[in-house]
C-alpha cells in the first residue's frame, strides 16, 4: 500500500523551508525562551479562577464596607472616645496596630487603625493560596509537566501566577479604597482612602512574592503554603510586638519596620498619610521575585531544592494501625506547630513584665477592661489563652481538612480497602488531632507561663497560665467537630468551618467593643469557657463543648459511613 | 447487540449464590443521571481467575469499588464470599486485597512502609513472602512515595496485596505502567495465587494477559455484562479466520453454510467460518488443490470488538473487517 499524502510532501509544495515555519527565527526564540506562553497561561489561570478570584476580591471589599459602615453607624463622639481608652492599651496594640491618630480620634482613623491589619491578613492569605494553587500544586499533581512539555518557558507558570496574584491584589485594593471612601464613615480626602487600599494591596503583593519563593523550597503544595503562612504569622507577631511597644511608649517600636504588615501600617492613612513605607514593600517584591526565579532555575520540575533521601525499607512497629498512620501523616505538621506555638507563647509571655510596669500609670478604666481587680497581669494571661485558642483552632481545622485531602488524593480508598472500617479511620484521625490540639495548648500555656514568670520574677504565674490555656481546648475541639461533621455529610462544604471560625473569633475579639447583645456574643464558641485567671472557669462550658464535640464527631463518622467515597 | 450468554445457573441457585466468591445480580448504580451500572450480573466461582474486560467508562472500576463497599449500589443483590460487601466491609477486607489501576501513595512514606502498612491493616504481613516479592519485582523499598514512577507505585500495591494471605484478589488494571519483564513476573504470581486456591478478579485492558491467565471472562459494556463464560466457549460462538491459497476458485464456498465475508485477493481466499461448521468446510476444501491454509481461532480482541464496536454495526461486518487485518 502506498501513502497518498504525506505531511512532508505538503510542506514541500508551499515552497517555504520547513524549519523556518516550525521554529521561527533563532533570535526571537532565545529572547522569549523563559517566559514564552505567558499570556496563554495567564488566561488559563483566570479561567480556572473565574469564581474563586472574584469571590476573594469581593469578600475583601465587602469586609471593608462592613467595618466602615458598621463602625460609622454604631459610633458617635462619646462612644468613640471611650473606645480610644480601650484601643490605647498595649494588648490592643499587639493585635491591631501602632495606634496612629488615637490622640485625636476620628472614625476613619479608628477604622484604619483597628481593622486595617485584618484586611492585610486577608489579602496575604489570598496571595499565598493563589500562588501555591497555580505553581507548586500544579507541579505536585503533574499537570505542570503537561504545560511545560508545550511551548512554554521555564518561568512562565511562576510569572503568570505572580501576574494573576498581583492583579487580584490591585483590584482588591482599588475596590476596598472605593467601598471605604463611599461608606458611611465619609472619609476625606480620597487620596487617604487610596493609600489605605494601596497599603493592603502592597501587603498582599509582598506575600505573593514570598510565596513565589516558598513554592520553590519544598515539593509539597501544603508545605509551601505552610512556610508562607509561618512567615505571615511571624510578620504579624513581630509588628505586634513593635506596635505594643509603640502604644505603651516603649523603645521597641523599630520592630514594626521589620514586618511587611508593619510597612503597610506605617503609612498611617488619615493621620500621617505617608506613601514612602510602601517603597519598602515594592523593594521586597523587586528582590524576592528574582530570588524565586533563580531558585526555580536551580531545581528540577516537581522537585524541591533539597534532594530526597532514602528512607526505611520496613515500616516501624508504630505504623501498623490506623491511628499509627494518622499520627504519621499529621506528625510533621504537629511538630512545626509545636515549635511555632511554644516560641510565640514564650515571646508573648515575656511581655508580662513590661505590662506590669506599665499598669502603674494606667487609668482605672483600662484596668477594669483588662481583668478587673486581679490586675492587668491576670487579664493579659487570660486574654492570651483566648488568643492561642484561636491560633490552635486554625491548626485543628487545617488538620480536619487534611482528612479530606487524603480522600480527594485517593489515598483513603486503599486504606478502607483493608480491614479498617470507615468509622475507625475517621476516629483515628480525630483522636490524633484532638490530642494534638490539647498538646499545643499545653505548650502555649507552659510557654506563656515561663515567659511571664521569667519577666516578672513571679513563678506562681506558671500554674494559672498553664491551666487557663489548657482549659480553652474544648472550644477548639468544637470547631474541629464541626469540620468533621461537614466532612461526613458534605465534604465539599468543609471550608464553611472557616466562616464559623472567623465569626467566633471576631465576636470574641470585637463583640464587646462593638457593644453587641449578650445573646449574639454567646453564639461564639470562644466566649464560654472564661479567660482564666482573669475570669472564673466555667466548668459546665468545658463539659458542654466537649460533649458537643463528641456529638459532632459521631455525626461526622455516621455521615461518612453512609456516603460514597470520592474515587478517581 | 447479539446473543448474550450467561453461565447456566443450576436449580439450587441460592446455595450456589452463597458458595460463589462473587455474585452480583441486577446491580444498578447511578451517579446523578448517569447510570454507571445498569443491571449488572456477575458470577465468579471460588478459586478461579476471572477476566473482567470492557472499554474505559464501562463500569469496571465502579463494579470493583462496589465489591469493596467503597461505593454504595442503588439496587440489586451482591454477595462477596457470601456476605454483603457494604455492611461487612471490614471483616471482608481481612480476606481480600485490592490493587487499583492508579496507585496514590503518601509522599512522605517509603514504599516499604506503605507495603507493610497495607498488609498490617489487612491483618498481617508474611515477611519472607514480602521480601521475596520485593526481590522479584525489583523494587527499592527505601524510596519515598513521591519519588516513585507510576510503575513503581503499582508494584508497591501489588507486592502488598500478593504478600497477604487473602482469599480474593481484586485487581483493577493492576499492571498499567509495568514493563514487560514485570508483566511476566506478575503473571507468574497470579498463577501461584491460583495454585494456592485464591480467587482473582482481574480487570484488564491487556488481552494477552487475560488470555494467559483467565479461566473465565466477563465482558462489560455500558454497565451490563454482555458476555460471560470460559474462553473456549466464547471462542466457539465466534468465527475462525481462514486464509487459503488456491489454484482454482472454489465456487461452493459462496453458498456454504457458515462461511462469511468471502473475499478474493489474487490467488488468496479470505473468509471467516462459524467454528461449528468448520469440519464440513474443511472437507469441502480438501477436495480442491490447496497450496496453503491458515486458520486462526478468534482472538480475544475479536470477541471484544464484537461488543465494543459501534452498536449500529452488525457483528458480521465487524468480524469481516478484522479478518482482513489478520496477519
Please give a structural write-up.
The complex is a heterodimer of chains A (568) and B (327). Chain A is mostly helical and 568 residues long. Helices cover 72% and strands 0% of the residues of chain A. In chain A, α4 packs across α11, α5 runs parallel beside α11 and α16 runs antiparallel to α19. Chain B has 327 residues and is of the alpha/beta class. Chain B has 2 domains: 214 residues, Rossmann fold (3-Layer(aba) Sandwich), CATH 3.40.50; 88 residues, Alpha-Beta Plaits (2-Layer Sandwich). In chain B, the strands form 3 sheets. Chain B has a 6-stranded mixed β-sheet, sandwiched between helices. Chain B has a 4-stranded antiparallel β-sheet with strand order 11-12-10-13, with helices on both faces. In chain B, strands 2-1-4 form a 3-stranded antiparallel β-sheet, with helices on one face. In chain B, β6, α7 and β7 form a beta-alpha-beta unit. In chain B, α4 packs parallel to α6 and α12 packs antiparallel against α13. Chain B starts with 12 loop residues before the first helix and ends with a helix. The N terminus and C terminus of chain B are likely disordered. The chains are: A mainly alpha (568), B alpha/beta (327). Chains A and B meet through α16 and α20 of A and α3, β5 and α4 of B.
